[in-house]
Amino acid sequence: MGRLIIVSNRVQPTNPDDGGGSQGGLSVALSAALRETGGIWFGWSGNVTEHFTGGIHFEKSGDITTAIVDLEAKDVEEYYSGYANCTIWPLFHYRLDLAHYDRAFANGYERVNQRLAETLIPLVEQDDLVWVNDYHLMPLGDHIRKLGRRNRLGFFLHIPWPPMRLLLSLPSHRQLVELLLAYDVVGFQADDWLQSFLDYLRVQFGLEMDEDGRVAWNGRTVQLVVCPVGLDAEEFKAISLSRAAQTVHKSMVKSAAGRTMIIGVDRLDHSKGVQERFQAYERLLSTHPELHEQIYLLQISPPSRDELGQYQEIRSGLEALSGHINGAYASPRWVPIRYVNQAYDRATLAGIYRAARVGLVTPLRDGMNIVAKEYVAAQDSDDPGVLILSRFAGAAAQLTEALLVNPYSSEEVSEAIAQALAMPRPERQRRWQQLNDIVTSQDAGWWCKIFVSFLIGSPR
């Protein structure tokens, strides 16, 4: 086996000394995976250049080399803001009403993937394994094949795969699936997403998966796997016990003034269900007046893709709804919702998680949701909080001892919050222990080893 080359849209390596910054779940997981194996992490820098040159900026940290390129403004508009985030993202999260189809977007998506493939090729040696990540880069493997490389190629999808009836609305749906069949291994977060992919293959291609999870296509064999992404659990636990996290924890306990905190941490996105969460919380307040001035919801929602109008609308809507709830229920001594629009580093988040009696993770649809696992990892084993988790998050298949809810039902979510607040310590400890066992054993290193073993061709 040669080196592991990981490719993702953005490259944001974690510096272990800085608490991880404000990275998303994908970046944290890939950083942890590369620390296990060493290798190269290739992708977009996040910067814009006047003309794309294919020039690579290298940086080395330990055994990890990052290799990043700048994109043109048109590339970012059509490939990233356009096709990836206005077409694929809403469609794959079951929001057909928000998906925007534009031929220029599709052309930009294809153009950038070809450019990235051509830039990557000189870095790839004969025995290297190439592991491509997420929806931005589905065509990359096919471009690598067309450039003559025969390396083992893997692709992992970090978001849901939609049901066939939704995917058929994409003008180039068949071409997109054929592009994925250029990889040797295609991985999904949960069995639901793999089954949706298989349904499409059966109906549109007449293909079946064998008992080992393989599909034969054009003289090649494609391995399909379910391999849920994990958290860098031990590192996050260590962060939660750091001086910085403990300082935050103490300040949160002090600011609570004896009240019980409920925590939500989500990017501003339609798929995260924050508006539905606020409505469920309002229902809790209306049906449980005895909880007034005893609890509060801290919702942290960092800005996401602010350049897109629909995300600005989400922010405005949440600000209006939180203001309405606070106006209806607040007293001179108490504000029911603390709503914050900024990102925090991992140490700060770990301290906040540890201070929260309830972790409210209720996306309408999510590939995995690393926040749920972070909340579990940060808890005090002697007096842990309770995780409330959407049934429609990929993490629900693993974290079965959470209180699983339908995020569309404000009644169900509000009842789960009440149940969590009243849950006795022995039950909280029992549930947390089982959740923690999963988060710790099926961590980012486990995820990396499982996927790479399939990529090598000798699955564990």
UniProtKB/TrEMBL annotation:
Record InterPro entries: Glyco_trans_20
Pfam family, one: Glyco_transf_20
Any GO molecular function: alpha,alpha-trehalose-phosphate synthase (UDP-forming) activity
Annotated GO biological process: trehalose biosynthetic process
Family: Belongs to the glycosyltransferase 20 family.
Protein name: Alpha,alpha-trehalose-phosphate synthase
Species this chain originates from: Sphingobium indicum F2
Taxonomic classification: Bacteria, Pseudomonadati, Pseudomonadota, Alphaproteobacteria, Sphingomonadales
